[in-house]
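Sequence in, structure out.
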Amino acid sequence: MTSTRLLTSLMLAASLLTCGFASADDAGPVYGPELQGFDYPYPVHNFNFESQRRSLHMAYMDVAPTGKANGETAVLLHGKNFCGATWENSIAFLSQAGYRVVVPDQIGFCKASKPEAYQFSFQQLARNTHALLESLKIDRITVVGHSTGGMLGIRYGLMYPKDVTRLVLVDPIGLEDWKALGVPSLSVDQWNAREMQSTADRIRAYEQATYYGGTWKPAYEKWVQMLAGLSRGEGRVAVAWNSALLYDMIYTQPVVYELDKLTMPTLLMIGDKDTTAIGKDVAPPEVKAKLGHYEVLGKQAAKAIPHATLVEFPLLGHAPQMQDPDAYRSALLDWLARTPAQ
């Protein structure tokens, strides 16, 4: 199919969705454009700020230690199809271990602002996060980034190396350059048309195959409905558009070439059954076959990062912190205990 025909078919599907046809068989909770109606596990605050001539806000949780305080702060960065709430298990055990835990929702995601026009970049998201932490009078931090949050964590570590005492990357995407490997470029309009087709069934099928290595537990359904509820609500157009802008950012701003510049102790936590690769479904078969091999990518990244420790989970997928929270917790706390803050 030519790119023109592909765009036409995608835009037709999007127009059907906008008219309401696509939601007929997708019953479930409906959430507002900033995830209103979906409860987070801890109180949510707003950080209001000006950026790119717009008044915006990041939502965030700021959780005090429940165990003996160790004087350290962990900042948890969510992935593209995740939110601050998906860190609920990590927040609980890190807080119990003595950490203050700060968990933002980035602009364009979840409970944060979804501007119609915004120049999304990992540098901008890092600056936004840094401004939030400055407002809380927090400087030295342990950064834990998952998926797209891993790409952001790497960029944050490169931009603010004196602030990041330790870096934890949980199945970070961006360990390969999809464009350079031959994944076709999609326009923002094409990404938007794809996002307008989002349904619970599509989300569930993708998450089962990629996040959980083909397995499924009833507990995962909450996170499917979190995303599907955003797409069912009155903000579905803004949600899809911001998602499209973010996919374009992820595709066009690789971090893999700068891994050797990270200076802080870094823990790579990799589910070997992860197959995540942006745009893989539109890639030619010979390109698709080369993408998303995390059992290889994790080892390559560990060699490239100067002070890296690699922990692999052979049977887990893209979200080990959700698929096997006990194994994930044990590995993370063990590394933190053995690795002094820089």
